[in-house]
Amino acid sequence: MEEIIKTYDDLKKQLKESGHEYDMALIEKAYHFAEESHGDQKRLSGAPYMSHPVAVACILAELGMDSESVAAGLLHDVVEDTDVDLEQIKKRFGSEIANLIDGLTKLRRLPYTSQEGQQAENIRKMLITMADDVRVIIIKLADRLHNMRTGSFWKPQKQRDKALENMEVYAPIAHRLGIRAMKEELEDLSLRYLDPIAYKEIEEGLHLRESERSSFIEKTKEQIRERVKPLIPNVYLEGRVKSINGIYRKMFIQGKNMDEIYDIYAVRVIVDTVNDCYNVLGIVHDLYQPLPNRFKDYISTPKPNGYQSLHTTVIGREGIPFEIQIRTWEMHHTAEYGIAAHWKYKLGLSNKGDSLEKRLVWIRQMLENQKDNDDATELIRDIKSDLAPEEVFVFTPKGAVISLPAGSTVIDFAYAIHSAVGNRMVGARVDKRIVPIDYKVKTGEIVEIITTKEETKGPNRDWLKIVKTSEARNKIRQWFKREKRDENIQEGKAELEKELKRSGIEYSDEELASFLESIGKKQNCQTADDVYAAIGYGGIQLWKIMPKIREDYQKAKKMATEPMIPLPVKSASSGKAANGVIVDGMDNCLVKFSRCCNPLPGDDIIGFITRGFGVSIHKRSCSNVPENLAEAQEPERWISVHWSGDIKEDFQTTLEILAADRPGLLADVTQHLFNMHLSIHSLNSRQTKDGNAIISATITIHGKDHLAAIRDHLSGIRGILSIRRT
User: Fold this and answer.
1) Distance (Å, rounded) from C-alpha 544 to C-alpha 519?
2) How far apart are CA 669 and CA 665, in angstroms?
3) For the chain, how are helix, strand and coil distributed in percent, rounded to 5?
4) How far apart are the C-alpha atoms of 700 and 462, rounded to whole Å?
């Protein structure tokens, strides 16, 4: 795909035609500084690097963002990709623009243990900055959108990784901020890489029906215009087709075909007032047959992102079902631009009832929920859960609307009202009937929480396994942390003893004290009781740390019982290959590949002289390999190794395949592996809570190039989202 290159002249033209007043001196200054800083840098496509920041600035101008945002868009990569530091930006452009760029800059210099940890910290930093200035995330979304538009130049694995991150984090954020156009384009561009076959199938289906679709929409618009125009002034109509990802979700995830998707076509009616909206609704329902249970009033009950509109699905005169959306102009700008519309309002459209502050409450609430959470894995899971676009809208007995992620329980509802309500909850009624504590609420239900006046009453530990939202989970943990310290210590001791016994780990009192101290350092616990208490209230989850504890214990036990057997070292700079690996300075030594990282030919590797088992080969990036070998406990045991030029060995590796679950998925994967003449050692699958499937396949391969070819082949299977080597 050829990259469309935007120039500074294109940006200036766009700013001039917008009708807004921009600080062109500031924007021009930012452009020239960025151009000078990036110099001769190129993009993967070969285009000048400056084409990217200019394109980002154009997207921001299209959204109607202010001068500072456009300038920050031009400068957003300067600190990360050049020698310029944040202080220089602050001196030249002021603290406002410097803070925007700081929120966008990745935390690449910190020592994260995993890609997920890196991602969690990046998102956390963006959220913190968003709470003070939401323009940060709007610029980030513009940056991500342009990168996805030019993603064809990335390697396939990077395409899938970025696409998955968009689906899980950035598109949901755009949804929360109400920026519909950005959300849908990000999802469509991501789907192109996650399921290219399905994307092409839908795209071709839409193309084949293009003339039919256009004819239907134009005819329908004319029918509505004829009835509405004599009664209501200043009516504007437009037609649209559901996004490719929207169609995909219903076709491939819900198992429907195109003819069963009722809202694939939509007509939008835009009027001046709220009264006009309801009047148009009456006319539309008189003109067409409405489908039962397909009417939604988001005007009286807006979505949490501020979206307002009337939605109704009707049967057209040709027998084709379609959706009609009815809204005012102000609602329309909010629906299209979401929170970015705030800056349009500032520039003169309208400012009545501006709800910018209200619409940022969810960000601050999310940060509050995560402030005591140091677990990157759990953090990213909670963020993804809280950002989930699938929501339910539930009513309190007094008529207040509470929005929750789909799958939330009555416990989540209780804690969404107030922590005191959740802590004293003893039961719940839904639509006046008693329901179990794990009941999942549905849109439109009226939920009443039954509480007790007993001050000693509190949540149950089992609730942590039931709740959906991070808000509820963290409030429950905080209660146990605050109210039940002695009980937590006893509970934690019992849990740890049980796990140690189950794992066959025996510590003396002195060893146990040292062990607890090492855990405490990693978990911000000062004393052994703090560690026990954290285990008790769930701050430290043993199931996550026990595998590493068992591994360390076995290593220590082996080192204590086995004598050091020195390996013959020769003065030569390199030795003969053993199992495809050359150990520098050694001939004919025993070589084994470590199971912790399963290195393959092509990986950057290093050797470790074991006690009695020759040289163990690790990937250089393995978690068991110190970053700085000079600071290792026994640096002399780490030695240089490299792959021989002629490798005839076969290697076992395990692939973890994430896919949208469907009938026949495992059979398709198995068939593809068989067609590639691969030896399959094990194959199993499991379903995730979000409706996806994870397939784990252990196979024999010849090296990294062979692995890359296998990945590319498997990626062609319908529904495959990502493939990673474990």
Assistant:
1) 12
2) 6
3) 50, 15, 35
4) 42
pLDDT at 476 over 70: yes
pLDDT in tens, 7-50: 889 898 988 888 778 899 999 999 999 999 998 888 888 888 99
pLDDT band, residue 110 (cuts 50/70/90):
very low
Q: What is the pTM of this model?
A: 0.54
| Residues 65 and 165 both lie in one domain | yes
Measured CA distances, 3 to 140, 152, 203 (Å): 20, 9, 20
- Are the C-beta atoms of residues 583 and 590 closer than 8 Å to each other? no
Which pLDDT does position 418 carry in this prediction? 87
For residue range 272-283, list pLDDT tens digits in order: 999 999 999 999
Q: From CA 645, how far away is CA 101, in angstroms rounded? A: 46
HSE toward the beta carbon, residue 327, CA cutoff 13 A: 23
Give the model's confidence band at 111: pLDDT under 50 very low, under 70 low, under 90 confident, else very high.
very low
Q: Count the domains in the chain.
A: 6
The answer to the question of residue 88 being in a domain is yes
pLDDT at 379: 52
* CA–CA gap between residue 180 and residue 335 (Å, rounded): 6
Structural domain contains residue 141? yes
DSSP letter at 167? Answer: I
DSSP H helices in 270-360: 274-287, 329-337, 341-346, 356-359
Q: How far apart are CA 697 and CA 674, in angstroms?
A: 12
Euclidean distance between CA atoms 163 and 374, whole angstroms: 26
* Number of neighbours of residue 109 by Cβ within 10 angstroms: 5
CA 431 from chain centre, in angstroms, equals 35
List the strands of the sheet with 638-639, edge to edge: 591-593, 615-619, 605-609, 638-639
Marked catalytic residue, from 36, 80, 226, 260: 80
In a domain, 377, yes or no: no
More confident residue, 342 or 298: 298
Q: Which is higher by pLDDT, 210 or 276?
A: 276
Residue 184 has pLDDT above 80, yes or no: yes
CA distances from 676 to 649, 654, 718 (A): 18, 16, 17
Q: Is residue 371 part of a domain?
A: no
The 641-643 sheet, strands edge to edge: 577-578, 581-583, 641-643
Q: Tell me: do 298 and 334 sit in the same domain.
A: yes
CB-based contacts of 39, cutoff 8 Å, min separation 6:
82
User: What's the rounded mean pLDDT across residues 260-283?
Assistant: 84
Q: Which residue in the list 81, 391, 587, 603 is annotated as catalytic?
A: 81
- Tokens 């329309």 belong to 332
- Reported as a pLDDT band with limits 50, 70 and 90, residue 363 is low
Structure-derived torsion over alpha carbons of residues 470, 474, 475, 476, reported in degrees to the nearest 10:
110
Do 346 and 418 have their domain in common? no
β-pair partners for 581: 578, 643
Respond yes or no: is residue 40 known to be catalytic.
Answer: no
Residue 495 and residue 478 in one domain: no
Residue ranges making up the domain that contains 623: 577-643
Pairwise CA distance, residues 362 & 151, whole Å: 31
Is 633 in the same domain as 667? no
Find the Cα–Cα–Cα–Cα dihedral 22, 25, 31, 32, rounded to 10°: 170
For this structure, is 28 an active site residue?
no
DSSP state, residue 679: P
Report the alpha-carbon distance of residue 228 to residue 363 in Å, rounded.
41
Secondary structure (3-state) at 80: helix
- If asked whether residues 535 and 590 sit together in one domain, one would say no
